[in-house]
Amino acid sequence: MTENPFTTSLKSPEIKDVTIKDPFWGRYVDLVRYVVVPYQWEILNDLVDIPIKSHAMKNFKIAAGLENGEFEGFVFQDSDVAKWLEAASYVLEKYPNPDLEKKVDKVIELIGKAQWEDGYLNTYFTIKEKGKRWTNLEECHELYTAGHMIEAGVAHFLATGKTSLLEIVKKLADLFKRILQKLGKTICFVNWTKKKKTATSFYDINHVAVLLLYLYIPFI
After folding, report:
1. Residue 32 to residue 118: CA distance in whole angstroms
2. Structure confidence by residue, pLDDT tens digits, 161-208
3. Closest Cα to residue 217, out of 173, 186, 176, 175?
4. Do 36 and 100 form a contact (C-beta atoms < 8 A)?
5. CA dist list (Å): 26 to 22, 31, 38, 183
């Protein structure tokens, strides 16, 4: 099969193969690596003395049945954890760090425990509105939060080669597939491959993004 020159030109280099020497942008790379990611870890775990706590990690612990309590934060609070995982994975891809990787693995293990048997993953509806899944897609950010978690799963896989978070989001993506099939929508899925790393039967991240964005619009 002939490779499409347009899609070929859109391929991005891997993060580990890119070194930024420019003093302006290099400063921001170091800022994320040394300050932002570590500080956000403390924020997510409520270790910083600020008036309004994140409660994001605690929400997952409650959803997983590891702690008692009520959901706190915005309906999309889970996305903060997903964004941290994605950012931490980008850092790990370029700058291996055993301590950071251990923290990432710990969070992924917790997320897996909070996931429903059918693949659903959202602490707000798990803790606070268990019977109202999929009832307010416009305002309750279920798809938004899921999309960030899927992106984090792909970033983590590319950075470490581990499939722990990838398996979680595959299960989540499979749930969306079943929902759309029940609605009678036409869906495109492809195997997702990157050089020697292959996520068997996982849906290309771009196709999943389209799937989430066009939940009520059939596409071919």
Report:
1. 35
2. 999 999 999 899 888 878 766 765 444 443 334 433 443 333 444 445
3. 186
4. no
5. 5, 9, 18, 48
The reply to whether the predicted model has a pTM over 0.85 is no
pLDDT one-digit tens code per residue, 3-35: 555 455 556 788 888 999 999 999 999 999 999
How far is the C-alpha of 166 from the C-alpha of 27, rounded, in Å? 31
